[in-house]
Write a structure and sequence with these properties.
By secondary structure, the protein is α/β, with parallel strands linked by helices. It has eleven helices and twelve strands. The longest helix is centred in the last third of the chain and has 25 residues. The chain is globular and about 55 Å long. About 40% of the residues are buried.
Length: about 300
C-alpha cells in the first residue's frame, strides 16, 4: 500500500493517478474527499481529514509500505517552523509506530549552501526532512527549485499589464521545474521497493533560465510583449501581506526569495538523473497559454453579459 498526501494538489493528484495506472494499491488522505477526482474517489482508499492530524495519519499509515509526503501551504501559520515541522510531527511519529518502510517527500534545494539557515520556507522544509531522518525510515527528499507552475499565480498581471514580478534579479539563471516532472520522479521512487538509506534527489528541470529569458519565451508563445520587473524585497512582502499572509509566512517567502537571489538553488549539478524533460517553452505552451486565454475569454464573456 502506498499512501499519498495532498491528492487534490498539483503534484499529489498526478502521483496518485500515476500509481493507479501502474496497478499499485493507493490510499489517499484528503481534507475534503469531495474535491478528489472521480478516478481517485472510485479507485483509491480514502482517509478523510488533515495529514497534520495524529489520528488521521495513524489510520492512513496502517499497513503502508511507502508514503508520499508534502506539507501543504499554510499562508496564515504562526511561523515557518509551525507550517513545516509542527505540522509534520504527528506523521513522523506515526511513520515510526506503523513501521512505514519508505518516505518520498517534496523538499527544497539549498542544504549545501551558506544560506540554508536563513532561507524562510526552505529552512523549514529542511528541518522537516531532518525530523523524518530521525525516525530511521528510508527517505528520499526530492529537492526542487522554484516551480514553473508558480507563474500561473500571475496570469492576471501577464494578461492585463504585460508583466510579471519577483524580487529576484532578472538576469540570474536558475533551475526551474514543472510539477508534472516532479510527480513523475516521485512516482518512480514510490514504486521502487528496493532502496534503503536516506538522501536528497535534486529535480532540476532541463536548463537554468532567468526571468528575463522567461519573459522572452512567454512573449513568443503568447504573441504579445510580456516583460519581467524586479521589485524590492519590501514591496514583495507588502504584496504577500495584502494577499492575506501572516507576517511570519510573508517574511518566510521574502527570506526564501532573498536566498534564491544569492544562489540558493545553484548548489546541485544537472545530470541525466537530476534533469527533467519539460522545458519552460513546453510548459508555457501546455499550461500558461490555456490559462491566459481562458481568463481572457471569461473576461470577454462577462463584458458581453
Amino acid at each position: 500500500m502506498i499512501v499519498v498526501t495532498t491528492p487534490t494538489g498539483n503534484i499529489g493528484r498526478l502521483i496518485a493517478q500515476n500509481l493507479l495506472t501502474s496497478g499499485a494499491p493507493v490510499r489517499v488522505i484528503a481534507r475534503d474527499p469531495t474535491c478528489l477526482t472521480t478516478e481517485l474517489r472510485d479507485n483509491c482508499e480514502v482517509v478523510p481529514g488533515s495529514h497534520g492530524d495524529a489520528a488521521v495519519v495513524n489510520e492512513a499509515f496502517k499497513g503502508a509500505e511507502a508514503v508520499f509526503w508534502l506539507a501543504p501551504p499554510d499562508p496564515k501559520a504562526a511561523s515557518v517552523m509551525a507550517a513545516y515541522v509542527d505540522f509534520t510531527r504527528p506523521a513522523a511519529m506515526a511513520i515510526k509506530e506503523r513501521g512505514v518502510k519508505r518516505v518520498v517527500s517534496i523538499t527544497a534545494l539549498g542544504r549545501s549552501t551558506p544560506y540554508a539557515l536563513r532561507a524562510g520556507y526552505v529552512t523549514g522544509s529542511l528541518a522537516m526532512d531532518d525530523m523524518f531522518l530521525g525516525t530511521g525510515v528510508a527517505f528520499r527528499g526530492l529537492a526542487c527549485p522554484s516551480f514553473m507552475d508558480n507563474i500561473l499565480r500571475q496570469v492576471a498581471a501577464i494578461r492585463d499589464q504585460g508583466k510579471f514580478y519577483s524580487p529576484i534579479s532578472g538576469d540570474l539563471k536558475l533551475p526551474s521545474v514543472a510539477t508534472q516532472d516532479i510527480a513523475a520522479v516521485a512516482t518512480r521512487w514510490l514504486l521502487d521497493n528496493k532502496w534503503t538509506g536516506h538522501g536528497e534527489v535534486p529535480v532540476l528541470g532541463p536548463e537554468d533560465i532567468s526571468f528575463n529569458d522567461m519573459a522572452e519565451i512567454i512573449s513568443d508563445v503568447l504573441g504579445a510583449r510580456v516583460s519581467y520587473q524586479q521589485i524590492s524585497l519590501e514591496a514583495y512582502k507588502a504584496r504577500l501581506l495584502r494577499f492575506g499572509m501572516s507576517d511570519a509566512m510573508a517574511q518566510g517567502m521574502t527570506d526564501m526569495a532573498w536566498a534564491k537571489d544569492r544562489g540558493l538553488d545553484l548548489g546541485a549539478s544537472r545530470t541525466a538523473e537530476t534533469g527533467t524533460p519539460t522545458s519552460f517553452r513546453n510548459w508555457c505552451e501546455e499550461k500558461l497559454v490555456p490559462a491566459v486565454l481562458g481568463q481572457t475569454e471569461s473576461k470577454a464573456e462577462r463584458q458581453q453579459g
